[in-house]
Structures are given as C-alpha cells and as structure tokens.
Amino acid sequence: MLSQWLIANCKQISGFKNMVINDLFKEESADGVVLKSVVQRHRKDRPPIEFYYEFSGVHADEVDSSADPFAAACLIKSMRANEPLEIGPSISTRLHVMLPRIRDIYHSWWPDLFKRIDIHTTPRLEPAPTPRNTMGTTFSGGVDSFYSLLKHHRDGSAIGRPLTHIVFMRGVETPIERAKGVEGSEEWVRAVAENLGVRPVFGATNVRTHIMTNWEKYDHGSALASIALCLSPILGFMCIPSAFSYRHLVPHGSSPLTDEMFSTDRMYIFHDGSEVTRAEKVESIVSWNKDLALRYLRVCLGNFGGAYNCGRCRKCVRTAIPLHVMGVAQGSDIFQYKGTDHWAGFLAKDHLELLRENYDFARRRGRSPEIVEMLDHAIRQRRFEQAVDELRSIAFVGEGDLNR
C-alpha cells in the first residue's frame, strides 16, 4: 500500500475566495512517487482540482515536497480565471519574488486574457540546500529537446560537466486521458538514454488537462518548469528547450524572459537553444549523431504521444523541409508518409517566423529551388493575411470610436 502523509505547517485557509493551494501530499510505493495537491477554486460552480506529478523508478527523497511545482503550474491558470492565487505552504524565496514579475509580463503581453491578480505567498525562511551540480532537460524526442540533449551531452559547457538526466512525462504533449501508444515513445526515450549514457526519468501528470489553457501559446513553459521543480532534490540545473530563436522573440508561453524566472533557490531553470533557428537545430542534430536522430526524432502533432511521425501534419512538414534540403530525408524511415504534395497547404498555416527560418535555411543551402519558391509563396500569403487582420482591427477600433 502507498504510504501517505500531509506535509506539515500548511496554513488553514477558509472561505476559498481565491484559487488556493493548501494541502500537499506525497505518496511512495514500490513503483515510484506521486506528489499531488487539491486546488480549491473561488467560484462554487468550479469544483476543486486534484492534480499530480507521478514519477516511476525514483525514491521519495528524489522528489520535492514543497509547493514550488504547484505555484509554477497554477499562476497562469489563476490569471486566466481572474482568481487571486493563495498558496498556504511556504515557497522558495526566489519564486516568491519572481511570481509577481511573471504575472506582470503575461498581463502586459495579453491584458484581456490574463488579469493582474493578487498573489499571496510566504517565502521559506530556512536556508535552501546548495543546488546539485547535475543537469537535465525535459525530453520529448522533438527537435528542440534533441538539440539541447546532444549539445550539452557533447561538451557540458553550461555547468562544467555533461548533461546527466532526461525527463519524459506522459500527459504533457497530449492530455493524459487522450494519450495513445506512449509506451512506444518511452521505449524510444529509453533507447536514446542508453545510447548516450544518461539517466531517463519517466512520469505522468494531469496538469495539462486541468491547469493549462492553451498549451503552445500560453502554458508549456510554466508546465515544464513545474515538472522540473519536482526534481530539484536530484537536479540543480534544468533545460526548457526553446521554441523560437533570439531573432524572432514573440510573446509566448515559453520564453527566455519568463522561463528562467521559475528558478528556485535549489534549481536553476534555463531556456535553452535560442541561439540558433529550428532549421539549424535540425542540421546540428544530424551532424552530431545522424543515426540516432533519424531513428528516434519524434515531432508529430498527430501521434497522440505515440512513437511515430505521420509525415502529414504541420510539425512533420516543418521538420521535413530542412531534412530534404540537407538530402537526408530520402531513404530514411523518419516519416510514415514521404510525399510532399501536401506541403503547400500546411505551410500556409504555419508560424510566419518559422517559415522565414526554413526559407533562409533553404536559400543559403541553394539545393532546393522548388522548396524555396514554396516557402516564399507561403510567407507572402501569411504576411498578406496578417495585414488584412491588422486592417480589420483598425477598422473595428475606428467604428467603436465613432459610436461613442
């Protein structure tokens, strides 16, 4: 049976006028450790949320017992719900200071969506343990996390030693109740870890299901930070792999401006990989370990967490372009569907910044004029659509002024 205890010294908060994190539980079994909390809501029509982080093959002393992970996970949700956030147990002094700053950044980026709520926290007074000289990265097998893994495994320049751990969580890229075929993905991650000699940490969480609002646009940086903070007893440094390069920084749920603010006195979280574009990451991964990359790279939006790349979705197309330009996609089994007839349709819906990165990469290589032309057309189309949206926005504001 699981042994369970209520973490001591939690304040008793009555009334629940805020979003309240009060009771924390840690459970240990022969299979691993679960850290969970019940989050009370302000409105009576919003039931309490019980959410968890479950790690297999670890011991209780390897998983944090504090409210730090839940503070990171709930901040954005409470802002979107316009419910003040109240955390009973004390949190890291650094996180106590930074949560209001993260709030202010989100509010300035999206003032209509994320309200400038009150935050009630208490900093821990006892000295924090010295951060361990160990480093990990969240790892899905995608381009961004593969790049961070291979980069830091190669030279270890970030902290003076190579990367030691990779963390794969069910319920992150796909909500836990919708995930399919994740066992195969875990086998891929285990194979990558064994090949490189790093320790894999596996787990599951329902945070995306209950706490997140829009994963890609608003939430995944804070969610990954919350997962990282669970492992602060064994990791002193943790990568959150970047989505965009420094050349194309935009308001986004994972940003070098905000991700690193979720660091605590015990763990330094750093947003990693923005020094290069996504296409350049693909190029680096292939040059560093071509066989491993072409066997285990996993980028698909349509696999529901499974171990394959459909070849048809937006992210598969986005990744296939630099691989085709480099001449390594042909003959590999990285994508189930190997045709290119659908590319133009998906490119017309992709991020403008990522289209430009692939265009610049293909043009510099000079090997695929047809891909350059296709990307140029998609960029022109996306810019036209953005201009139309901007004109509509201006017209709407003007009409509102006239009606005053």
Overview of the structural elements:
By secondary structure, the protein is of the alpha/beta class. The protein is about 40% helix and about 15% strand. It is built from eleven helices and eleven strands. Strands 1, 2, 3, 4, 5, 6, 7, 8, 9, 10 and 11 form an eleven-stranded mixed sheet that branches. Helix 1 runs parallel beside helix 2 (about 95-110), helix 1 (about 70-80) runs antiparallel to helix 6 (about 215-230) and helix 10 packs antiparallel against helix 11 (about 370-400). The protein starts with a strand and ends with a helix. Residues about 1-15 have low confidence and may be disordered.
Give the tags.
single chain; 404 residues; alpha/beta; eleven-stranded mixed beta sheet; 11 helices; 11 strands; 41% helix
Q: Approximately how much beta-strand content do the residues carry? A: 15-25%
Shape from CA axes? Answer: globular
Order of helices and strands: EEEEHEHEEHEHEHHEEHHHHH
The biggest sheet, with number of strands, parallel, antiparallel or mixed sense and barrel status, is: 11 strands, mixed
Helix content: 40-55%
How much is the average pLDDT? 88
Can you count the beta strands?
11
Low-confidence stretches: 1-16
Number of DSSP helical runs:
11
Oligomer: single chain
Short description:
With 404 residues, the chain is α/β, with parallel strands linked by helices. It has eleven helices and eleven strands. 41% of the residues lie in helices and 16% in strands.
